[in-house]
Specification:
single chain, 17 strands, five-stranded mixed β-sheet, iron, EC 1.17.7.3, oxidoreductase, binds iron/sulfur cluster, eight-stranded parallel beta barrel
Length: about 400
Protein backbone atom coordinates (compact mmCIF):
# COMPACT_ATOMS: atom_id res chain seq x y z
CA UNK A 1 0.00 0.00 0.00
CA UNK A 2 1.14 3.50 -0.75
CA UNK A 3 1.59 5.18 2.67
CA UNK A 4 0.93 8.56 1.03
CA UNK A 5 -2.65 7.48 0.28
CA UNK A 6 -5.28 7.38 3.01
CA UNK A 7 -6.59 3.89 3.75
CA UNK A 8 -9.49 2.72 1.62
CA UNK A 9 -12.87 2.49 3.33
CA UNK A 10 -14.33 3.45 6.66
CA UNK A 11 -12.51 3.66 9.92
CA UNK A 12 -13.65 1.01 12.40
CA UNK A 13 -16.84 1.83 14.28
CA UNK A 14 -16.11 3.58 17.53
CA UNK A 15 -16.66 1.27 20.49
CA UNK A 16 -19.73 2.37 22.45
CA UNK A 17 -21.95 1.00 25.16
CA UNK A 18 -25.00 -0.69 23.73
CA UNK A 19 -28.40 0.70 24.71
CA UNK A 20 -31.63 -1.33 24.36
CA UNK A 21 -34.55 0.84 23.25
CA UNK A 22 -37.63 -1.34 23.22
CA UNK A 23 -36.62 -4.17 20.89
CA UNK A 24 -33.90 -2.15 19.12
CA UNK A 25 -30.20 -2.14 20.00
CA UNK A 26 -28.26 1.10 19.56
CA UNK A 27 -24.46 1.22 19.84
CA UNK A 28 -21.94 -1.51 20.47
CA UNK A 29 -21.91 -3.91 17.54
CA UNK A 30 -25.48 -3.05 16.44
CA UNK A 31 -25.91 -1.57 12.96
CA UNK A 32 -26.51 2.19 12.74
CA UNK A 33 -30.22 2.67 13.48
CA UNK A 34 -32.53 4.94 11.46
CA UNK A 35 -34.97 7.07 13.41
CA UNK A 36 -37.39 9.88 12.67
CA UNK A 37 -39.91 12.18 14.33
CA UNK A 38 -43.57 12.95 13.79
CA UNK A 39 -44.89 16.46 13.13
CA UNK A 40 -48.47 15.77 14.18
CA UNK A 41 -50.21 17.11 17.27
CA UNK A 42 -49.71 14.21 19.68
CA UNK A 43 -53.21 14.69 21.11
CA UNK A 44 -54.46 13.59 17.68
CA UNK A 45 -54.17 9.89 18.48
CA UNK A 46 -55.35 8.60 15.10
CA UNK A 47 -53.25 11.07 13.07
CA UNK A 48 -50.12 10.50 15.12
CA UNK A 49 -50.49 6.71 15.05
CA UNK A 50 -50.95 6.88 11.27
CA UNK A 51 -47.84 8.97 10.75
CA UNK A 52 -45.81 6.69 13.02
CA UNK A 53 -47.07 3.69 11.01
CA UNK A 54 -46.10 5.45 7.74
CA UNK A 55 -42.62 6.24 9.08
CA UNK A 56 -42.22 2.67 10.32
CA UNK A 57 -43.33 1.22 6.98
CA UNK A 58 -40.82 3.50 5.24
CA UNK A 59 -38.12 1.96 7.45
CA UNK A 60 -37.88 4.11 10.58
CA UNK A 61 -36.72 1.79 13.35
CA UNK A 62 -37.64 4.20 16.15
CA UNK A 63 -40.01 7.18 16.12
CA UNK A 64 -39.97 10.23 18.39
CA UNK A 65 -43.08 12.19 19.25
CA UNK A 66 -43.65 15.50 21.00
CA UNK A 67 -44.87 15.22 24.59
CA UNK A 68 -45.49 18.80 25.63
CA UNK A 69 -48.80 18.88 27.52
CA UNK A 70 -50.81 16.69 29.87
CA UNK A 71 -53.19 15.95 27.02
CA UNK A 72 -50.29 14.84 24.81
CA UNK A 73 -48.90 12.67 27.61
CA UNK A 74 -52.34 11.14 28.17
CA UNK A 75 -52.57 10.33 24.44
CA UNK A 76 -49.28 8.40 24.35
CA UNK A 77 -50.53 5.04 25.71
CA UNK A 78 -53.48 5.17 23.31
CA UNK A 79 -51.12 5.77 20.37
CA UNK A 80 -48.92 2.84 21.41
CA UNK A 81 -52.00 0.64 21.86
CA UNK A 82 -53.38 1.59 18.45
CA UNK A 83 -50.05 0.70 16.82
CA UNK A 84 -49.87 -2.62 18.68
CA UNK A 85 -53.34 -3.50 17.35
CA UNK A 86 -51.86 -3.14 13.83
CA UNK A 87 -48.91 -5.34 14.79
CA UNK A 88 -46.51 -2.36 14.86
CA UNK A 89 -44.08 -2.49 17.76
CA UNK A 90 -41.75 0.35 16.84
CA UNK A 91 -40.15 1.99 19.91
CA UNK A 92 -41.76 5.36 20.62
CA UNK A 93 -39.56 8.05 22.12
CA UNK A 94 -41.05 10.94 24.10
CA UNK A 95 -39.56 14.37 23.41
CA UNK A 96 -39.70 16.43 26.61
CA UNK A 97 -38.89 20.08 27.23
CA UNK A 98 -39.54 22.29 30.29
CA UNK A 99 -42.25 20.20 31.95
CA UNK A 100 -41.17 16.59 31.39
CA UNK A 101 -40.84 15.95 35.14
CA UNK A 102 -44.47 16.99 35.69
CA UNK A 103 -45.81 15.03 32.73
CA UNK A 104 -44.03 11.82 33.71
CA UNK A 105 -45.30 12.17 37.29
CA UNK A 106 -48.90 12.92 36.35
CA UNK A 107 -49.11 10.36 33.54
CA UNK A 108 -47.43 7.11 34.67
CA UNK A 109 -49.08 5.23 31.78
CA UNK A 110 -47.22 7.55 29.39
CA UNK A 111 -43.98 7.03 31.29
CA UNK A 112 -44.44 3.29 30.91
CA UNK A 113 -45.64 3.24 27.29
CA UNK A 114 -42.64 5.19 25.95
CA UNK A 115 -39.53 3.22 25.03
CA UNK A 116 -37.15 6.11 25.72
CA UNK A 117 -37.21 9.66 27.03
CA UNK A 118 -35.42 12.48 25.25
CA UNK A 119 -34.31 15.21 27.65
CA UNK A 120 -32.76 18.48 26.52
CA UNK A 121 -30.42 19.63 29.31
CA UNK A 122 -30.85 23.24 28.18
CA UNK A 123 -34.63 23.03 28.64
CA UNK A 124 -35.03 21.15 31.91
CA UNK A 125 -35.51 24.25 34.04
CA UNK A 126 -33.57 27.20 35.35
CA UNK A 127 -31.55 28.05 38.43
CA UNK A 128 -31.95 25.81 41.45
CA UNK A 129 -34.99 24.07 39.95
CA UNK A 130 -32.89 22.77 37.10
CA UNK A 131 -30.96 20.24 39.17
CA UNK A 132 -34.07 19.05 40.98
CA UNK A 133 -36.09 18.66 37.81
CA UNK A 134 -33.26 16.90 36.00
CA UNK A 135 -32.95 14.49 38.94
CA UNK A 136 -36.72 13.87 38.82
CA UNK A 137 -36.56 13.01 35.11
CA UNK A 138 -33.72 10.56 35.70
CA UNK A 139 -35.58 9.01 38.64
CA UNK A 140 -38.61 8.39 36.42
CA UNK A 141 -36.36 6.73 33.85
CA UNK A 142 -34.87 4.48 36.54
CA UNK A 143 -38.30 3.70 38.05
CA UNK A 144 -39.77 2.75 34.66
CA UNK A 145 -36.54 1.15 33.45
CA UNK A 146 -36.26 3.39 30.38
CA UNK A 147 -33.21 4.64 28.51
CA UNK A 148 -32.70 8.36 28.07
CA UNK A 149 -31.26 10.47 25.30
CA UNK A 150 -29.56 13.49 26.70
CA UNK A 151 -29.83 15.77 23.72
CA UNK A 152 -28.11 19.13 23.88
CA UNK A 153 -28.95 21.55 21.11
CA UNK A 154 -27.29 24.69 19.79
CA UNK A 155 -30.63 26.50 19.80
CA UNK A 156 -31.34 25.79 23.46
CA UNK A 157 -27.90 25.76 24.99
CA UNK A 158 -27.67 25.73 28.80
CA UNK A 159 -27.12 29.49 29.25
CA UNK A 160 -25.67 29.22 32.76
CA UNK A 161 -23.03 26.77 31.55
CA UNK A 162 -22.28 28.91 28.48
CA UNK A 163 -21.76 31.97 30.76
CA UNK A 164 -19.52 29.95 33.07
CA UNK A 165 -17.35 28.79 30.16
CA UNK A 166 -17.15 32.36 28.82
CA UNK A 167 -15.78 33.43 32.23
CA UNK A 168 -13.29 30.57 32.27
CA UNK A 169 -12.23 31.52 28.76
CA UNK A 170 -11.61 35.12 29.78
CA UNK A 171 -9.11 33.85 32.36
CA UNK A 172 -7.37 31.54 29.91
CA UNK A 173 -3.87 32.67 28.85
CA UNK A 174 -4.65 32.02 25.19
CA UNK A 175 -8.36 32.48 24.90
CA UNK A 176 -10.46 30.40 22.52
CA UNK A 177 -12.61 31.95 19.83
CA UNK A 178 -16.32 32.30 20.61
CA UNK A 179 -17.26 29.36 18.39
CA UNK A 180 -14.97 27.01 20.28
CA UNK A 181 -16.36 28.18 23.62
CA UNK A 182 -19.91 27.53 22.46
CA UNK A 183 -18.97 24.09 21.08
CA UNK A 184 -17.36 23.28 24.39
CA UNK A 185 -20.50 24.46 26.21
CA UNK A 186 -22.63 22.16 24.07
CA UNK A 187 -20.35 19.17 24.62
CA UNK A 188 -20.02 19.83 28.35
CA UNK A 189 -23.78 20.23 28.65
CA UNK A 190 -24.26 16.73 27.22
CA UNK A 191 -21.35 15.08 29.03
CA UNK A 192 -21.89 16.71 32.43
CA UNK A 193 -25.61 15.88 32.31
CA UNK A 194 -24.81 12.27 31.43
CA UNK A 195 -22.36 11.98 34.32
CA UNK A 196 -24.95 13.51 36.66
CA UNK A 197 -27.48 10.92 35.47
CA UNK A 198 -24.96 8.16 36.21
CA UNK A 199 -24.43 9.60 39.72
CA UNK A 200 -28.19 9.48 40.20
CA UNK A 201 -28.17 5.77 39.39
CA UNK A 202 -28.90 5.54 35.66
CA UNK A 203 -26.70 2.89 34.03
CA UNK A 204 -24.31 4.06 31.32
CA UNK A 205 -25.97 1.46 29.08
CA UNK A 206 -29.21 3.43 29.41
CA UNK A 207 -27.81 6.69 28.02
CA UNK A 208 -27.58 7.98 24.43
CA UNK A 209 -25.98 11.36 23.81
CA UNK A 210 -26.48 13.98 21.14
CA UNK A 211 -25.18 17.52 20.67
CA UNK A 212 -26.79 18.97 17.61
CA UNK A 213 -25.89 22.11 15.72
CA UNK A 214 -27.07 23.42 12.36
CA UNK A 215 -23.67 23.98 10.69
CA UNK A 216 -21.86 21.14 8.95
CA UNK A 217 -18.32 22.01 10.13
CA UNK A 218 -19.51 22.67 13.69
CA UNK A 219 -21.34 19.35 13.82
CA UNK A 220 -18.30 17.42 12.64
CA UNK A 221 -16.08 19.19 15.21
CA UNK A 222 -18.57 18.68 18.07
CA UNK A 223 -19.10 14.97 17.45
CA UNK A 224 -15.41 14.21 16.91
CA UNK A 225 -14.77 15.74 20.32
CA UNK A 226 -17.76 14.06 21.94
CA UNK A 227 -16.65 10.69 20.55
CA UNK A 228 -13.13 11.22 21.87
CA UNK A 229 -14.32 12.12 25.36
CA UNK A 230 -16.87 9.38 26.11
CA UNK A 231 -18.05 5.93 25.13
CA UNK A 232 -21.77 6.69 25.28
CA UNK A 233 -23.81 5.67 22.24
CA UNK A 234 -24.24 8.69 19.96
CA UNK A 235 -27.31 9.95 18.12
CA UNK A 236 -26.21 11.91 15.04
CA UNK A 237 -28.20 14.59 13.37
CA UNK A 238 -27.83 18.06 11.94
CA UNK A 239 -30.49 20.12 13.66
CA UNK A 240 -32.62 22.49 11.59
CA UNK A 241 -30.95 21.09 8.46
CA UNK A 242 -33.30 22.95 6.15
CA UNK A 243 -35.81 22.36 3.41
CA UNK A 244 -35.52 20.06 0.38
CA UNK A 245 -32.17 19.49 -1.28
CA UNK A 246 -30.36 21.89 1.08
CA UNK A 247 -31.35 19.82 4.10
CA UNK A 248 -30.47 16.56 2.37
CA UNK A 249 -27.07 17.78 1.19
CA UNK A 250 -26.12 19.42 4.50
CA UNK A 251 -27.16 16.38 6.54
CA UNK A 252 -25.44 13.95 4.20
CA UNK A 253 -22.23 15.99 4.16
CA UNK A 254 -22.03 16.21 7.95
CA UNK A 255 -23.19 12.71 8.80
CA UNK A 256 -21.20 11.19 5.95
CA UNK A 257 -17.92 12.53 7.35
CA UNK A 258 -18.72 11.28 10.87
CA UNK A 259 -19.97 7.86 9.77
CA UNK A 260 -16.84 7.46 7.65
CA UNK A 261 -14.84 8.01 10.84
CA UNK A 262 -16.85 5.33 12.64
CA UNK A 263 -18.80 7.88 14.71
CA UNK A 264 -22.56 7.50 15.20
CA UNK A 265 -24.90 4.76 16.42
CA UNK A 266 -28.28 6.12 15.33
CA UNK A 267 -29.14 8.86 12.86
CA UNK A 268 -31.98 11.19 12.12
CA UNK A 269 -32.16 13.39 9.02
CA UNK A 270 -34.09 16.46 10.23
CA UNK A 271 -35.69 17.73 7.03
CA UNK A 272 -38.19 20.52 6.83
CA UNK A 273 -40.73 18.89 4.51
CA UNK A 274 -41.50 20.80 1.33
CA UNK A 275 -45.20 21.65 1.11
CA UNK A 276 -47.05 18.48 0.15
CA UNK A 277 -43.96 16.27 0.59
CA UNK A 278 -44.22 13.16 2.69
CA UNK A 279 -42.71 13.08 6.17
CA UNK A 280 -41.24 9.73 5.21
CA UNK A 281 -38.69 11.43 2.95
CA UNK A 282 -36.33 11.82 5.89
CA UNK A 283 -36.39 8.06 6.46
CA UNK A 284 -35.61 7.31 2.81
CA UNK A 285 -32.72 9.80 2.87
CA UNK A 286 -31.31 8.26 6.07
CA UNK A 287 -31.51 4.77 4.59
CA UNK A 288 -29.93 5.87 1.32
CA UNK A 289 -27.11 7.62 3.17
CA UNK A 290 -26.29 4.45 5.13
CA UNK A 291 -26.66 2.23 2.08
CA UNK A 292 -24.63 4.33 -0.34
CA UNK A 293 -21.86 4.41 2.29
CA UNK A 294 -21.96 0.62 2.48
CA UNK A 295 -22.97 0.58 6.14
CA UNK A 296 -26.34 -1.13 5.76
CA UNK A 297 -28.60 -2.46 3.03
CA UNK A 298 -32.32 -1.68 3.06
CA UNK A 299 -33.53 -1.93 -0.51
CA UNK A 300 -31.99 -2.77 -3.90
CA UNK A 301 -30.12 0.24 -5.23
CA UNK A 302 -30.63 1.44 -8.77
CA UNK A 303 -27.70 2.89 -10.69
CA UNK A 304 -28.90 5.20 -13.44
CA UNK A 305 -27.03 7.49 -15.78
CA UNK A 306 -27.99 11.19 -15.83
CA UNK A 307 -28.93 11.15 -19.50
CA UNK A 308 -27.51 13.45 -22.18
CA UNK A 309 -27.93 14.35 -25.85
CA UNK A 310 -27.37 10.71 -26.84
CA UNK A 311 -30.71 9.59 -25.43
CA UNK A 312 -33.84 9.67 -27.52
CA UNK A 313 -36.22 10.34 -24.64
CA UNK A 314 -36.56 10.56 -20.90
CA UNK A 315 -37.98 7.07 -20.93
CA UNK A 316 -34.91 5.56 -19.27
CA UNK A 317 -35.09 8.10 -16.42
CA UNK A 318 -38.74 7.22 -15.91
CA UNK A 319 -37.81 3.55 -16.01
CA UNK A 320 -35.15 4.11 -13.35
CA UNK A 321 -37.77 5.75 -11.16
CA UNK A 322 -40.34 3.02 -11.81
CA UNK A 323 -37.79 0.33 -10.94
CA UNK A 324 -36.59 2.10 -7.76
CA UNK A 325 -40.17 2.65 -6.58
CA UNK A 326 -41.09 -0.93 -7.43
CA UNK A 327 -38.27 -2.50 -5.42
CA UNK A 328 -38.87 -0.12 -2.51
CA UNK A 329 -42.57 -1.04 -2.45
CA UNK A 330 -41.77 -4.76 -2.64
CA UNK A 331 -39.06 -4.67 0.02
CA UNK A 332 -41.31 -5.15 3.10
CA UNK A 333 -42.57 -8.40 1.52
CA UNK A 334 -39.13 -9.46 0.25
CA UNK A 335 -37.64 -8.78 3.67
CA UNK A 336 -39.71 -11.68 4.97
CA UNK A 337 -39.88 -13.96 1.95
CA UNK A 338 -36.63 -13.15 0.11
CA UNK A 339 -34.04 -12.06 2.69
CA UNK A 340 -30.94 -10.74 0.97
CA UNK A 341 -32.90 -9.02 -1.83
CA UNK A 342 -31.86 -5.70 -0.28
CA UNK A 343 -28.26 -6.35 -1.38
CA UNK A 344 -29.21 -6.59 -5.05
CA UNK A 345 -27.94 -3.94 -7.48
CA UNK A 346 -29.75 -2.76 -10.60
CA UNK A 347 -28.73 -0.52 -13.49
CA UNK A 348 -30.90 1.48 -15.86
CA UNK A 349 -28.76 3.16 -18.51
CA UNK A 350 -29.55 5.50 -21.36
CA UNK A 351 -27.33 4.33 -24.23
CA UNK A 352 -24.54 2.07 -25.41
CA UNK A 353 -21.71 4.37 -24.22
CA UNK A 354 -21.80 3.21 -20.60
CA UNK A 355 -24.96 1.09 -20.67
CA UNK A 356 -23.65 -2.44 -21.25
CA UNK A 357 -20.60 -1.91 -18.99
CA UNK A 358 -22.58 -0.55 -16.06
CA UNK A 359 -25.33 -3.13 -16.59
CA UNK A 360 -22.77 -5.94 -16.44
CA UNK A 361 -21.58 -4.67 -13.04
CA UNK A 362 -25.11 -4.88 -11.64
CA UNK A 363 -27.03 -8.04 -10.75
CA UNK A 364 -29.53 -7.03 -13.38
CA UNK A 365 -29.23 -4.11 -15.75
CA UNK A 366 -30.74 -2.72 -18.89
CA UNK A 367 -29.17 -0.54 -21.57
CA UNK A 368 -31.85 1.41 -23.38
CA UNK A 369 -31.47 2.57 -26.99
CA UNK A 370 -29.96 6.01 -27.46
CA UNK A 371 -30.17 8.27 -30.52
CA UNK A 372 -29.24 6.36 -33.67
CA UNK A 373 -29.12 2.97 -31.94
CA UNK A 374 -31.23 -0.02 -32.89
CA UNK A 375 -34.59 0.08 -31.04
CA UNK A 376 -33.67 -2.71 -28.68
CA UNK A 377 -32.66 -2.90 -25.01
CA UNK A 378 -30.30 -5.67 -23.95
CA UNK A 379 -30.74 -6.92 -20.39
CA UNK A 380 -27.72 -8.23 -18.50
CA UNK A 381 -28.12 -10.67 -15.64
CA UNK A 382 -25.13 -11.38 -13.40
CA UNK A 383 -22.80 -9.95 -16.02
CA UNK A 384 -24.16 -11.89 -18.99
CA UNK A 385 -26.45 -10.65 -21.75
CA UNK A 386 -29.64 -12.57 -21.05
CA UNK A 387 -32.38 -11.17 -23.29
CA UNK A 388 -33.19 -8.19 -25.51
CA UNK A 389 -36.41 -6.25 -24.90
CA UNK A 390 -38.25 -4.29 -27.61
CA UNK A 391 -41.45 -2.34 -28.06
CA UNK A 392 -43.59 -0.39 -25.65
CA UNK A 393 -43.70 -3.00 -22.88
CA UNK A 394 -40.02 -2.73 -21.97
CA UNK A 395 -40.72 -1.27 -18.51
CA UNK A 396 -43.28 -3.94 -17.65
CA UNK A 397 -41.05 -6.75 -18.91
CA UNK A 398 -37.94 -5.45 -17.15
CA UNK A 399 -39.76 -5.18 -13.81
CA UNK A 400 -40.99 -8.76 -14.32
CA UNK A 401 -37.37 -9.85 -14.89
CA UNK A 402 -36.37 -8.12 -11.65
CA UNK A 403 -39.11 -9.97 -9.74
CA UNK A 404 -38.09 -13.21 -11.37
CA UNK A 405 -34.45 -12.61 -10.39
CA UNK A 406 -35.44 -12.04 -6.76
CA UNK A 407 -37.63 -15.17 -6.76
CA UNK A 408 -34.75 -17.24 -8.04
FE1 LIG B 1 -25.50 9.79 -22.00
FE2 LIG B 1 -25.34 7.25 -22.70
FE3 LIG B 1 -23.77 8.17 -20.74
FE4 LIG B 1 -26.37 7.89 -20.31
S1 LIG B 1 -24.90 6.22 -20.77
S2 LIG B 1 -25.14 9.69 -19.81
S3 LIG B 1 -27.21 8.40 -22.30
S4 LIG B 1 -23.70 8.73 -22.90
Amino acid sequence: ADPALPAYGQQPRRSTRQVRIGGVAVGGDAPVVVQSMTNTDTTDVAGTAKQIADLWRAGSEMVRITVNTHEAAAAVPHIVERLAMQGIEVPIIGDFHYNGHQLLEREPACAQALAKYRINPGNVGFGKKRDTQFAQLIEFAIRHDKPVRIGANWGSLDQALAAQLMDENARRAESWDAGRVLREALIRSALDSAERAVELGLARERIVLSAKVSGVQELVAVYRDLARRSDFALHLGLTEAGIGSKGIVASSAALGVLLQEGIGDTIRISLTPEPGASRTQEVVVAQELLQTMGLRAFTPMVTACPGCGRTTSEFFQELAQVVQEHVRAKMPEWKVTRPGAENMTLAVMGCVVNGPGESRHANIGISLPGTGEAPSAPVFIDGQKAVTLRGDRIAHEFVALVDDYVDR
